[in-house]
Amino acid sequence: MVLGLVAVSAMTALASRASAQVAWRGDFETGDTSQFSYRLNETVEGRRYITVQSDTVVEGTRAARIELHDDAVWPNGLKRVELSHQPDAARTAEGAETYFAWSLYLPETLSSDPAQTIGYWESADSYRQMMAFDLSGTTLTFTTRQPSNVEQWRGEGVITPGEWHRIAMHVRWSKDAAIGRVSVWLDGDRVVDGAVARTLNDDNPHFVQIGLLRGAISFSDVPVIVIDDVVEGNSLADVRPADLPGEEPDAGVMERDAGVIDAGGVDAGSDAGRSDASSDADAGRMSREDEIVGGSCAVGRGRPTGTLVIAVLLTSLGMVVRRRRR
């Protein structure tokens, strides 16, 4: 009986995941980075700084390895290697809501001096950063930029090297700081609950960039991050905030977010006094490249397909029923 209930529960979770209305996916299963709108410093003077590989993955068979070198200089002086996704304009317009998530893995602890920005939303054309995730050693912070810098959350020691982590967001877009909202989940736990902020800079579309970004400084280390399972969706279920190795999909997170961001949150009038070089007007982004990463791809640590899992579970359930009949 217990095995039968487990089978039904697992099949329900798989069916829910299969029916999710995902708006866009960047999972690198194409073997390249073409799912993304832009790639910033994917190659520098013939050296590839974004590599699609199969050694370290969280789902499927491929993920992107990003490394930041001191010569990865953008025209405005910032040091960056990033992947950029720009949703359809209507999906970041006034009053629209966006769910977005990605998984990340650090082979080693990243530097705390200098620190790095690993993800942020920014306005197109006017290039104003609206909210960002900064990583210093193992400490992750989330900051909204408008109408002033507010550190909405700080997680000391939450990013462990050698383990996969997943960041998920729910944003209500508005130029009005009293209407804009943002919630954040880390590894399935909500860490920012409907924070109040101006989430739209202007009427331009807004885009998200993930990877490694530092200011206009010199450094000798080479930080590395692996990114996988990037998703934009229409609900929290679509982006699976708790979907990590060893975790049940969507376990323990759905009851607190039914698709509308809570009205409460941190007072946007308080200023954390932090600044970031990338909050200034950007110098633009790199156009798409057509270069494809070649080579064969061995099967990584992907999950079994839904059909195979369901077949196994149905077989197990049948065995339980037969035993009861004997």
TrEMBL record:
The segment annotated Disordered runs over: 264-289
- Bias regions of kind Low complexity — which residues? 264-281
Which positions carry the signal peptide feature in this UniProt record?
A: 1-20
Question: Taxonomically, which superkingdom?
Answer: Bacteria
Membrane-crossing segments per the record? 305-321
The protein's UniProt keywords, in alphabetical order, are: Membrane, Signal, Transmembrane, Transmembrane helix
Could you identify this protein by its name?
A: Uncharacterized protein
